[in-house]
Amino acid sequence: AGLYHRVIVESEPFGIYMRSRADADAQGAKFAKALGCAESDLQCLQSKPMHSVVDAQEVVADKVTDPTELLEFFIPWTPTIDGDEVIDEPFFSFQKGNVADVPIII
Length: 106
Description:
This protein is mostly helical. It is built from 5 helices and 4 strands; from the N terminus they run ββααααβαβ. The strands form 2 sheets. A two-stranded parallel sheet has the order 1-4. Helix 1 crosses helix 3. It is elongated, with a radius of gyration of 17 Å.
């Protein structure tokens, strides 16, 4: 079949806010800026010590991209609908039948 032949879902995926690719890119740019790096400078980003990364995460988490999304205040770092790996909100994928036909325990 595919990669999975059975699934156990331990977290309810339908209530998790999924960020758009544009929002995730904007958040990533803010994160890189908080670290003093260009967003495309992987070497700079990887060279930062852990405490700087944690500090930058907190700075960016305080800058909500969409104030109408209440969950974003509580879960600032969320999955992203990137169009490749995650193509839609989980609820809509289930609704459309875009899921693997395997037994699921929720």
